[in-house]
Amino acid sequence: MEGEKRPEPYSGLFADGHLVLWTLCSVLLPVFITFWCSLQRSRRQLHRRDIFRKSKHGWHDTDLFGHPTYCCVCAQHILQGAFCDCCGLRVDEGCLKKADKRFQCKEIVLKPDAKALDAMPHHWIRGNVPLCSCCVVCTQQCGSQPKLCDYRCIWCQKTVHDECMRSSLKNEACDFGEFRNLVIPPSYLTSINQMRKDKKTDYAMLASKLGKQWTPLIILANSRSGTNMGDGLLGEFRILLNPVQVFDVTKTPPIKALQLCTLLPYHSARVLVCGGDGTVGWVLDAIDEMKIKGQEKYIPQVAVLPLGTGNDLSNTLGWGTSYTGEIPVAQVLRNVMEADGIKLDRWKVQVTNKGYYNLRKPKEFTMNNYFSVGPDALMALNFHAHREKAPSLFSSRILNKAVYLFYGTKDCLVQECKDLNKKVELELDGERVELPNLEGIIVLNIGYWGGGCRLWEGMGDETYPLARHDDGLLEVVGVYGSFHCAQIQVKLANPFRIGQAHTVRLILKCSMMPMQVDGEPWAQGPCTVTITHKTHALMLYFSGEQTDDDISSNSDQEDIKDTE
């Protein structure tokens, strides 16, 4: 009709343009906001890292504190932020720079001030005191109020209420608390620096001021061992001890860390190795290097906190099969103070390849636990090969043992190591031994094997002398296959006991066979393996951590003495 208005052609295009514009805004705006937030987050991270790098504090980020926490600057309740693993300060992200300037961290070495050297005062920080801590003045519980309250000394760990804090406490000398016999005081290191400038080395006279019970402890932790608990343990030890005593062996090799022993009195140092049996072997090798350098007077005694998968050496020395945080770090230090010194045999394993034109030097290994050829070495070799490909997948003890179980079950069906007795010759102290139809031979230095099995003593009424790790003797046993190994693990069978010897010689005549020394496996061709005594290591034995097998073995030993 003529009276009706026709829509203008441009009005439809204008509406479509609005739709396109709003669509673009709805898509691009979230992208822009996300990009802007990520940019700001990156800037904050760079800013924090810059503060961390320049700071004397040991700052670490955390997305969630494990218990109610309050910022030491603004006193507000915080869920995330940063904390210092040396002095225990906790701050919000926005207060990090202020806290870094306002609060002083632990001083590992004091300034040469005569008053400070004679008696170092307490170093108090306010708030976030440990749960169930008590005031040293009124003996009532501290930190019970939901706010930033009460004080804690970062050296002796004593706590005191706000209202109980007096000027006398602020000026009182710090005695370093319960672990004073393990802590290296900053004043001691300051005096050592002064003595070295004066070219004096009489450290015993300086240590006499700290008492006869002073046995300083050095922590060597492997942050990559087992369940990756090393990082957390490093921080807890730094809070209880002097940070200069705590080392991560993945960053500072043991041979460098152990040079701290040369600043201590003769035969006074102790070392706590936090890691698996491989880490312990690494530290003991470094101690052997100290002997070569003529530093025998500074050799420390070694304790073990088991973080690995098998931990047979730790179990033999009474430190248990694994540490998962079930006991506090303070109790670990108490156990170290109560431990007794013993000796551990260390053995040289020499592998000489066969061949007319073999010009290579024999391979040499140092053995602390055991040497084996056969199915258990094959399981270790397969496990090691897969762990090298994807190390991040093997951070759980349960998963690691499940992988071992898988390869053990596979070998039960395949039997790659059968007819071992036809492929090898075995000599004990120079005498050849006739072997039955075996698949594996295991040479033991310690009582435990395979993650907690007492292999030599076995089970049943038949009495065998207890395996010792300090008698200069090796125990040699045989197994009939992977299934036999599994039966031994669950105490349904005994190994074939071949004998004890001071020297073991094994000749592999043909074919490739898997071998291992202390869990380090490899595939070996025809060769001669010779195991001889190398040296002793000074270890610490803790008698308070005994398993059922230890108790039964001790009772068996007492019965043998009674019959004699």
UniProtKB/TrEMBL annotation:
Stated EC number for the protein is 2.7.1.107
Q: Which residues form the Phorbol-ester/DAG-type domain?
A: 56-105, 121-174
- Residue ranges crossing the lipid bilayer per the database entry: 20-39
Catalysed transformations (reactions)? 1-eicosanoyl-2-(5Z,8Z,11Z,14Z)-eicosatetraenoyl-sn-glycerol + ATP = 1-eicosanoyl-2-(5Z,8Z,11Z,14Z)-eicosatetraenoyl-sn-glycero-3-phosphate + ADP + H(+); a 1,2-diacyl-sn-glycerol + ATP = a 1,2-diacyl-sn-glycero-3-phosphate + ADP + H(+); 1,2-di-(9Z,12Z-octadecadienoyl)-sn-glycerol + ATP = 1,2-di-(9Z,12Z-octadecadienoyl)-sn-glycero-3-phosphate + ADP + H(+); 1-hexadecanoyl-2-(5Z,8Z,11Z,14Z-eicosatetraenoyl)-sn-glycerol + ATP = 1-hexadecanoyl-2-(5Z,8Z,11Z,14Z-eicosatetraenoyl)-sn-glycero-3-phosphate + ADP + H(+)
Instruction: Give the pathway listed in the UniProt entry for this protein.
Output: Glycerolipid metabolism; Lipid metabolism; glycerolipid metabolism
Listed GO CC annotations: cytoplasm; membrane
The answer to whether keyword Membrane applies is yes
What Gene Ontology terms describe what this protein does at the molecular function level?
ATP binding; ATP-dependent diacylglycerol kinase activity; zinc ion binding
- Alphabetized InterPro entries for the sequence: ATP-NAD_kinase_N, C1-like_sf, DGK, Diacylglycerol_kin_accessory, Diacylglycerol_kinase_cat_dom, NAD/diacylglycerol_kinase_sf, PKC_DAG/PE
Question: Which residues does the UniProt record annotate as the domain DAGKc?
Answer: 212-353
Provide the membrane topology annotation.
Single-pass membrane protein
Note the Pfam families from the entry. C1_1, DAGK_acc, DAGK_cat
The protein's UniProt keywords, in alphabetical order, are: ATP-binding, Cytoplasm, Kinase, Lipid metabolism, Membrane, Metal-binding, Nucleotide-binding, Repeat, Transferase, Transmembrane, Transmembrane helix, Zinc, Zinc-finger
Q: What's an example GO BP annotation here?
A: phospholipase C-activating G protein-coupled receptor signaling pathway
Function (record text): Membrane-bound diacylglycerol kinase that converts diacylglycerol/DAG into phosphatidic acid/phosphatidate/PA and regulates the respective levels of these two bioactive lipids. Thereby, acts as a central switch between the signaling pathways activated by these second messengers with different cellular targets and opposite effects in numerous biological processes. Also plays an important role in the biosynthesis of complex lipids.
Task: Tell me its family.
Answer: Belongs to the eukaryotic diacylglycerol kinase family.
Q: What is this protein called?
A: Diacylglycerol kinase
